[in-house]
Design brief:
alpha/beta, six-stranded mixed β-sheet, elongated, 2 domains, binds adenosine-5'-triphosphate, Rossmann fold, 331 residues, Alpha-Beta Plaits, 11 helices, four-stranded antiparallel β-sheet
Length: 331
C-alpha cells in the first residue's frame, strides 16, 4: 500500500497558544428539550479528542456548535481562538468538517469534487489543481481521480470526504462518526489516514459510538450521555479508573441471571486472588469484573457452576460506559 505523507496543514503555526477548542457550560436547547446540558471541555492543539456516547447523546449537536453552524443557547465557546457565534466565517475557514453522512457531489468526478469544494473557499484554480493531486494521493484515490463518485465504494467515499475537507489546510478536523457503516478493512484504512494527519499536527475531534474507534484514535475523550459529560480521560485511564483489568463473560442459557449474579457474588466476594469487583447483569449474559478473570472462572467451576460459554477478555470503553450509565453503548 502506498504511504503518502499527510498533506500540509496550518496545524503547528501557533501550537503554544490557546487550546484548539474550549467549551464552558455549553448548552443547547430545542424548545423544552435540552440536547447539550452544560458541558465543559478543552481540546489541546494537535491532540485527537473524542466524544463517545450512544445515539442521541448530543455529540452531533456539540459538533455543529463547534463548526459554527448551530447557535448555542448558553455557555461559552472558543474555537481556534475565536467565538464561532461572532466570527462564524473565520472559524469555518480554519476547520475541516466531515459530516455523519457523506455529502459529495455525485454528478462530479472525484477530482472535481475537491476542486469545486476549494472554490467555495475562494482558493485559486492553479493552487487547487496541485492540491487535488496531493489530497488524492493522501486519500489513496489517485487511481480514481476521473471516476464518478457514484462508482466509489463506501470507504472510498469517506476518504474523499476527508480529502475534500482538507482542501483549505484546516488546523482542526471535525469528524462526526467517521467510520460508521464501513466494513472492518475500510475502517482500518481510514484510521491509518487519520493517524497520519494527527502525526502531522492536525487537531482531530471526532464523535463515535464505537468503543474500538475511540480506543484506536483518541488521546483523550469525554463519555457523553443525555447531553452531559459522565467522565473524561485517556482510553486507558478511563478503563483503569472505572473498570477492572479483565472481564469474564458468562452465558448460562437460562432466565435466572439476576439470581445467578447474587450467587456468584457470594462465591467471589472475598476472593483476593481473583480481584473481584462487581457483576453486571445483561439480558443474555453476566459480566464478571475481576482483575484475574481466569482465577474467577476457576472458583466458579470449583463451586459446581457450569456456564454454557465463558470468555475472558480485557476491559474496554464499553465496560466504562456500562459502569457509568448502566446501559450499553450500542442500543
Ligand atoms: N433540530 C433539532 N430539533 C429538535 N431536537 C433535536 C434537533 N437536533 C437534534 N435533536 C435532538 O437532540 C438530541 C441529541 O441529538 P444529536 O444528534 O446531537 O445526538 P448524537 O449523540 O449525535 O447522536 P447521533 O449519533 O444519533 O446523531 C437527540 O435526542 C435529537 O433527537
Amino acid at each position: 500500500m502506498p504511504t503518502a505523507a499527510a498533506p500540509a496543514t496550518r496545524a503547528s503555526a501557533d501550537s503554544s497558544l490557546s487550546p484548539a477548542i474550549e467549551a464552558v457550560d455549553l448548552t443547547k436547547r430545542y424548545g423544552d428539550f435540552t440536547a447539550v446540558d452544560g458541558i465543559t471541555f478543552s481540546v489541546t492543539r494537535g491532540e485527537a479528542f473524542g466524544l463517545l456516547g450512544p445515539n442521541g447523546a448530543g455529540k452531533s449537536t456539540t459538533m455543529r456548535m463547534i463548526a459554527a453552524v448551530a447557535a448555542r443557547t448558553s455557555g461559552q465557546m472558543n474555537v481556534a481562538g475565536l467565538d464561532p457565534e461572532v466570527e462564524g466565517p473565520r472559524v469555518r475557514a480554519r476547520l475541516g468538517v466531515i459530516p455523519q453522512q457523506d455529502n459529495l457531489d455525485e454528478e462530479l468526478t472525484v477530482r472535481e469534487n475537491i476542486i469545486m469544494y476549494g472554490r467555495y473557499f475562494g482558493l485559486p484554480r492553479r493552487y487547487l489543481l496541485a492540491k487535488a493531486d496531493e489530497l488524492l494521493d493522501f486519500a489513496q484515490l489517485s487511481h480514481k481521480a476521473s471516476a464518478r463518485v457514484e462508482d466509489l465504494s463506501g470507504g472510498m467515499k469517506r476518504r474523499l470526504t476527508i480529502a475534500r475537507a482538507l482542501v483549505n489546510e484546516p488546523e482542526i478536523l471535525l469528524l462526526d462518526e467517521p467510520t460508521t457503516g464501513l466494513d472492518p478493512q475500510a475502517r482500518h484504512v481510514l484510521w491509518d489516514r487519520l493517524f497520519r494527519l494527527k502525526e502531522s499536527g492536525t487537531t482531530l475531534v471526532l464523535t463515535t459510538h464505537h468503543m474500538d474507534e475511540a480506543e484506536q484514535l483518541c488521546d483523550r475523550l469525554v463519555v457523553v450521555d443525555h447531553g452531559t459529560i459522565m467522565a473524561e480521560g485517556s482510553p486507558a485511564g478511563l478503563i483503569r479508573e472505572h473498570s477492572t483489568r479483565e472481564v469474564l463473560e458468562l452465558r448460562f442459557g437460562m432466565d435466572r441471571n439476576a439470581e445467578l449474579a447474587e450467587h456468584l457474588e457470594k462465591i467471589l466476594g472475598d476472593d483476593d486472588a481473583a480481584g473481584f469487583s462487581h457483576i453486571e447483569v445483561l439480558p443474555d449474559r453476566l459480566l464478571v469484573y475481576a482483575g484475574q478473570a481466569e482465577t474467577a472462572l476457576e472458583r466458579i467451576h470449583a463451586a459446581g457452576l457450569k456456564p454454557m460459554t465463558s470468555l475472558v477478555r480485557r476491559s474496554s470503553l464499553e465496560d466504562v460506559f456500562l459502569r457509568l450509565t448502566g446501559r450499553s453503548l450500542i442500543d
